[in-house]
Amino acid sequence: MERIFAKSALRECWDKHPDTEQYLKTWYDTALNSDWRTPHEVKQTYVNASILKDSRIVFNIKGNSHRLVAKFNFQKQWIFIRFIGTHNEYDKIDVNTI
Question: Residue 67, by phi and psi: left (phi above 0), alpha (psi -120 to 50) or beta?
Answer without folding.
Answer: beta
